[in-house]
Amino acid sequence: MQTTDLKSPANPFGRHDWTPYPKSRWGMVIDLDRCIGCWTCAVACKSNNDVPIGMWWNRILTIDEDPSGLDVQTTGGIDEPAGDYPNLSLSFLPVQCFHCDNPPCTEVCPVAATYKREDGIVMVDWDRCIGCRYCMIACPYDMRVFNWSVPVQVPANETDYHVGDPAKPPRPKGVVEKCDFCYQRIDDGLQPFCIEVCPARARVFGDLNDPDSDVSQLVAHAPVAQVRADFGTEPKVYYIPAGQSGGGAPSAVAPRFVDPERRDLTKAEVS
Amino acid sequence: MSTHDSVISSTVANRRFSVPGRVAVLALLALFAYGVWAWSYQVSNGLGATNMRDIQIWGAYIALFMFLVGASAGGMIVASIATVFHIDKISHLSRYAVWVSLVTITIAGLTIIPDLGEPQRFWHMFTYASWTSPMIWDVIVVLGYGFMNLCYLWVHTRRDLAARHSWLAFGSRPATEGSARGDHRLIAAFAYLAIPFAFALHSITAFIIGTMPSHPYWYSTAMAPLFITSALTSGVALVLLVLLALERLGRLEVGADARRWLAGFLAVAILLNFFIIAVEVITISEGRLVGAWAAVSQLMIGSYGWIFWTEVVTGIAALAVVMTPRGRSSRPLVAAASGLVLLNVALERVQLIVGGLRYPNIGAAPGISLGTPAQLNMIGVPTRSSFVEVARYTPSWVEWSIIVGLCALWGLLLLVGIRFLPLGTRHPAALAASASPTRAAATPASAVAGRGLEGALPVAVLAAPTPSLGGQLDVRYEQWGALAKSDRLFAPSDTRSARS
User: Fold this and answer.
1) Above 0.95 for ipTM, yes or no?
2) How many domains does chain A have?
3) Domain B19-357+393-420 homologous superfamily, CATH
């Protein structure tokens, strides 16, 4: 199992663009019929990635159930069902960086601090970012968060105590950050942490370039949708809208989806 | 050198500030120091000291940047248009206009620095420049425009600087008959270059927000034309305001003709600006696409409505002045109209930046995390969530302080330049007076010489901007105009031979 060496000869500048899976194209499918809106992924993400107080890489939005797709303009409050009693419905939309194939954020970054890695993960270089926040302007989904002040972690990061993944570098104030699909876990052959912790198993992660992977199977056979794909960004996070899957992943992938062997990326058939 | 061009007048022996001038400089220095202190507070505390947050990603700094970039257009308008289109009645104002532009574009560039989260990494813009980003192109074009203004001003003033034995002449020699022709070519070349450059500057600044489909209110082909028209509007208004203030203080003679011409130009610019805004608002209102319509309806009747309606009222009030001959003939009224126009364009920028960021594309509860902790009351109960669905923004005291500091620096640079640089050029009428009755029979150089041309007349004329002189000057101007026609742009002239 390979690990990321930030200053390895292959990566002399410390940019995290080295990947053991250069031919992969990581993507995610989230089944909204399974999502229970518990925020476990969001909290686990904060913990694993050392995300400072007030900032979220993962958020769980409350949306109206819309059989035609994903209704992203709603007026209700958080956890507020839509409809009139007794015909109520409650749906959630977990959002994070969509790691677009055609990311507007990397295009506008004046210093190329945000860039797309070979395996399709959109990264932010915290050593290069100048904090102009143009990428946040360009992102149509508002998935990027900014370190407005000195990052505060609870419990505080001391020299002998560090929350989350030790491979996650500390960030200074004044830089942009966002979901990076837990690239350090992927490089170590593990799934992103939100996949691991989801109690409803609503999230599936895998290689979109591998036609046999769970995500490829779901994208091919399940009624998946992307959020506001009309921006031409080609998001790599797909959703199975509520009411479409009947609460279970399609049978074609369900057995493999729960197979622990499949959750170890090192055993994925990556060429 | 042709008569339309400048002749030095302000080689005033006393190159120190007067007492009120010193008071003004000290006050501006104090305000600038306060701004620097506020910025140091912001640097040590992070941009959290501002009221920008993850939903209100940009705020007052970017609005000020875009306003100042637009307002720097005045130099191009007055100096270049005077040369390119032979508008001789404003040619004596070129140097002041270019100086105003140079100072304004300098402050515009500096405005970006406090907006950066990592200001000490500003040099990354040059070492890691990414050419797909409109921001890099804007950095280039802002720096280029500033540099061009600097060169333009230097070419305009270097002979006079040399006459003063200033090191700023960089080896140039005082004007001679031979040098005048070359100078003219150079100035004309700059004038022609400045116009496409100014178009690029304002368009690329517009592209920063206009090429963002993520913000439907901004994503418009009208954005670049809007920035051009508002640059024409605010640029000429800023130059007019500064020049009329200087005229009031007796520093120079703008003259009724130049004021009327610039006020007329302002009227056309305001109308064009109104036109583009109206086209934009009407198009979006008819289409009612979710995001853009939300922003525009907010503009009309929402909590930012007062900005838009103040814009409309100030614009109409300014138009009422500059569209009427009576208004144009009054210096205080034209100055007031210029001030209103500057307010108008500044509010337009605020409304554009703040209004465009108000509604996120994904508008579902709980919304976007602010990026700073929730506010808690004394017993630890959150009084304000760290999530918001709709942006609510007013600048914080830090933002206001830094803006005040930047404006103070603007005023400071402006005053220093006006005091120490040879920006003063003679009014055409004064030139005509010294050259009359006919150019052919112009007084021999030796007669005008002595202490140089400036000894002949202009100091007295410039020091006395009395209303009574205005009419007299206008009459003389006609004489001069006839002379100017016989002496075209590139024709050599002997008016400066006295200096050789």
Assistant:
1) no
2) 1
3) Formate dehydrogenase/DMSO reductase domain (1.20.1630.10)
